[in-house]
Amino acid sequence: MKHWAGYVVLFWLLAALLGLLLSVSGLALPGFAQADQIDLSHLLALPDSSAWLGRDDLGRDILSRLLEGASVALSVALVVTSITLLFGTLLGLLAGYYGGWLDRLLMQITDVFLAFPGILLAIAFAAVLGPGLLNLVMALCLTSWVGYARLTRVQALSLRQRQHVQAAESLGASVPRILLRHILPLLAAPLLVEATYGIAGLVIAEASLSFLGLGIQAPHASWGSMLRDGVRYLLVAPHYVLAVGFSLMSLVLAVNVLGDRLRDALDVRRSD
Amino acid sequence: MLKRLLGVLPVVFGVLLLTFLLVHLVPGDPVEVMLGESATQADRAGLRAALGLDQPLPVQFGHYLLQLTQGDFGRSIHSGADIAGLLAERLPATLRLALLALAIAVLIGLPLGILAALHARRWPDQLATIASLTLSAMPHFWLGPLLMLLFALWLGWLPVSGMEGRWAMVLPALTLGFGLAAILTRMTRASLLEVLHEDYVRTARAKGLPERQVILGHAMRAALLPVVTVLGLQLGSLLAGAVITETIFSWDGIGRLLVESIEKRDYPVTQACVLVIALSYVLVNLLTDLVYARLDPRIRFAS
Predict the structure, then answer these.
(1) CATH code for residues A7-22+50-266
(2) Among A9, A63, A207, B254, which has the highest number of CB atoms less than 10 A from its own CB?
């Protein structure tokens, strides 16, 4: 029971993998319909043995679509996290280590990005870039690097004063070597914790944009667009919204709890 | 304090520049995207000239700033309506919603946070922690429909959506407020726990003050400071949260205006909504910092 968060995350990772496999191969779960298989004779049907979680407004199997949605949510979150972690960390390292105008410029830019509350800037980018998976990833990348850059910068700023870094400097180590071998390893723990919370945030962000019609487009499934469709039929088919909502909540909650556990285990203090 | 005021200027400038550049991020020709394929050459040239898109970028930006200083946000491409008028029409609804949400969050979050801190690591604390963890894993587009299902459709206590009558505001405000209450609970708990170990709290107890007065009169005064900061930061994000909440509950505020403008590809309106929300956020943060400085004697007397 103690490790429930880990098991829930593992469950969704496997579900996402299965969803990806099914949508790429075009196969279906045995006994279930494909995620995009329309069945107009079973619109908004309640859960039964042929569709364990019921069917949506086009008679599609909600369970299969949930799996596809999980693969979209997690792959978007993981791809965006990898890109922004790399980019943000690099910027933060350079700014924190060199200081000067580079540092001031980076801080100015991140200040401006942080002046847009919550998901607003991602919505704005997605709005002008247009809907679609690639634009969604782009909009999220454009806004998600800021946290990593600021975290890395603050840490690099103080780490460069440490004796082992100054020793490396006086031994004539090159800047890339100092940054990668002497500073970055000490940043791994806080960055890992930050990235874990970041993944939970991105699952929500992807769903938010898709909810607003800015993300994944039909016929592909996303938890956000499923929720939007589900809200329309809330009275006649509450099972639709409930199935998607509880899935999303369980994943986000488990990732956040995992983040808390990592933070405590690695003894990381977060500023916010 | 003057430094803080001046420090805001580059941020405001950056926000203006970024929102201005938004339209230029549109892949291809924004005019074509806005008008669709059926538009004639003359229509396109007309709109391009009307938006000033035929001029060099710095000139366009200068023009944009000049217009904004006169309170001119341009016109909607879709309806031709004056955008400043649209904003003035929609903003009050969003502010009302955000303020009620804030009140709900404070009424739930503060007492719950105090309760959790006073009973740290016992069941009230654990319950509050579980509740706030669960709530923070519930984005507005999931909490909103859930509340709607529960209180409007099943129990029938509150209107489903729209703006008719005074009760219509309750569900969207709860949707916005609950998430904030979760954050506030955790902040209050952490902040109060930290303060409870301070010497002056022990002194207050030692001189025989009743526990109630120690907590509310002494400890809470100091513990509230970081909470105020979070509250200020979150008031701004309530405006962003309103984008989705207003869409769910058909609440005609600035958030819904933004979503509608995106659907219609009405870029000037999108731009104006994003700008207004971001600038209000900057303003609220600035005010929070100033209030914080007034509240905290350590800062007040230092400057």
Answers:
(1) 1.10.3720.10
(2) A207
